Amino acid sequence: MKGLVLAAPLAGISTRPFRVLAIGLGAAMTYTEMISSDGIIRHQKKTRALMEFGPDEQPLGIQLFGSNPEIMGQAATIVREQFHPDLIDLNFGCPVKKVVRKNGGAAVLKDLKLTEDIIRAVVEAAHEIPVTIKIRSGWDETRPVYVEAGRIAEKAGAAAITLHARSRSRGFTGVADWSAIKRLKESINIPVIGNGDIKNPTDAKRMLTETGCDAVMVGRMSIGNPFIFSQINHYLRTGELPAEPSLADKIELALNYVRMMVDQFGEIRGIKKTRRNLVWLMKGFPQAAEMRSRLFQIETFEDFCDLMKNYQKDNIIAME
Ligand SMILES: Cc1cc2nc3c(=O)[nH]c(=O)nc-3n(C[C@H](O)[C@H](O)[C@H](O)COP(=O)(O)O)c2cc1C
């Protein structure tokens, strides 16, 4: 792994095009979105499509969720034999109802014996492929379990652990408690990846120094600003804050991204799926509000290229 900043798994966002951009911009690792182990063992076509990747997205982890150790072990065998990722990550942090209702995601943390059984089953099935876990600090605020879960993971053979320093009940509210990352790092001997609320390069540096974690992971901030990976790398390497990407850089990235999304998902789906990201990417652009409404009208890649060309012409002329 090159570098200290990982691109977080983000359901609906961590598609192949997004991962290619992230790796190109210096992310040390990318992940698939969380994938149902039930879907994998039933060989569902849609599930399989989520696990396909190329060398330009690597190193890449396939992230699994589920609650049955046997099924998760079988899923890991399929992943190892048919997809060959750089690692298998286990999702013990997802707070979404659809997942926790079936005892997956963060619900696994309510039963640490189950957590251990799942890790052991997957480590055994994964053979040489490292298995990592991604957790929240606990199911709710009353019972933080991250230290216990970390010790269990280490004993059960996990290669590293990512902590999103919030309990499941906090969702995305409040501020992530980075002191939990520090405590976890002090309690175990496998690498700890810190996660939660990194918004800029100085936050990344501060998390590394304050917690002693081995690497950091960036999620939401990368959706609107995939440049954040190179910005953090630059700051960690030189101690200097990087210049903001120019309008031309952002437009080039947007064109590249939409082209890949259209190649991957076809024109209609590709355009539809990119709109949300593009709106975020274009936040802060001159005339962003007008741009946003135009983005929701485009239907083809050609429409998008025209929109960008005209926009760039108008704004570069306006700025001169
Ligand atoms: C839209 C969205 C989708 C997410 N999907 C996943 C997922 O599939 N797997 C996972 O482990 N975490 C998922 N997360 C959580 C992120 O990976 C990350 O832990 C969280 O956003 C905190 O990091 P941040 O403050 O840098 O965003 C998701 C978060 C968001 C906002």
Walk me through this protein's architecture.
The chain contains 15 helices and 9 strands. By secondary structure, it is an alpha/beta fold. The protein folds into 2 domains: 5-238, TIM Barrel, CATH 3.20.20.70; 247-315. Strands 1, 2, 3, 4, 5, 6, 7, 8 and 9 form a 9-stranded parallel sheet that branches. Helix 7 links the parallel strand 6 and strand 7. The longest helix is centred in the last third of the chain and has 19 residues, at 247-265. The radius of gyration is 20 Å and the shape is globular. 44% of the residues are buried. The mean pLDDT is 94. Bound molecules: flavin mononucleotide.
Detail the topology: elements first, then pairings.
Blueprint: E1 5-7, H1 16-24, E2 30-31, E3 35-36, H2 37-41, H3 45-50, E4 60-65, H4 69-82, E5 87-92, H5 97-100, H6 112-126, E6 131-136, H7 146-156, E7 160-164, H8 178-187, E8 192-195, H9 201-211, E9 215-218, H10 220-224, H11 228-238, H12 247-265, H13 267-281, H14 288-295, H15 301-319
Parallel strand pairs: 1-9, 2-4, 3-4, 4-5, 5-6, 6-7, 7-8, 8-9
The protein binds flavin mononucleotide.
| CATH level 3 topology of the largest domain | TIM Barrel
Query: Shape, please?
Result: globular
Tell me the Rg in angstroms: 20 Å
Bound molecules: flavin mononucleotide
Tally of discrete structural domains: 2
**Roughly what fraction of the amino acids lie in strands?**
5-15%
Number of strand segments:
9
* Main β sheet profile: 9 strands, parallel
Helix % is 40-55%
> How many helices does DSSP assign?
15
